[in-house]
Structure formats: structure tokens, C-alpha cells
Here is the input.
Amino acid sequence: MAAASLIYPDGRTAHLSPAYDIVPTFCLDGDDTLAIPLGRAKTMADVTLETFRRPGMLLSLDPRLLADEAKRTVERAADEWPGLLPNLPLVKSHAERLSGRWESVALAEGHRQVFLSGFGANRSF
Here is the structure.
């Protein structure tokens, strides 16, 4: 994710804003390098829940706040991804590249089979 923003629905508690303007440039060039490093993480494969704890500490927040929100976001994606994938306007090579990427993204740990199920044999590209 090259850009992220926070919203404060109650005026005080930060939540990741809904995703918008998502362009998986990884599909185009295969480069997993983040546009802007996220802490010490320079690739999506390096991003873990711990990656989100450090900024929380630097902002004098409970270090679990951002990590918990990232975890909930991954869980929501795991719930939605398989149902959305068949309707996404992806060419076969991009879909295959995304499928392979889930295998290396640390944040997908524990959810890989859910994500990858969207790429099942019944998927027509």
C-alpha cells in the first residue's frame, strides 16, 4: 500500500480509512519494493504486525493500536477477497502474480489459504 490515511470517526480514535485508488503496481513490474519504506520494511514481504507497533510508540499511542487495526484489516480482506476476486478486471498474468504474492506477504500468515482460495480452479480469467 503506497498511501494510507487515518480517519477519526469519534474525533479521537484512529482507524485506517477505507481503501481507495488501489493500483497493484506489483502486477505490472513484479517489484515488491514499497514506494516509501514502512519503518524498517522496504518490501511487502517485510511488513509484519510489529511494523505497525513502532509508529504507534513514536506517536505516544498504545503500540497495539495500529497493529490491531492492521490485523483487523487483513482479517476483513480475508473474508472479502475470495468473493471479490472472480469479479475483478484482472488479466490472467496479473491474477497469477497476485496469487503468488500472497505466499510471501507476512501479514497474510494464517490467512493464506483463504486468500488463495479466490484463485481456485473455478476461476476463469
Summary: The first helix runs from residue 25 to 29. Residues 6-117 form one domain. The chain has one domain: 6-117. The mean pLDDT is 78.
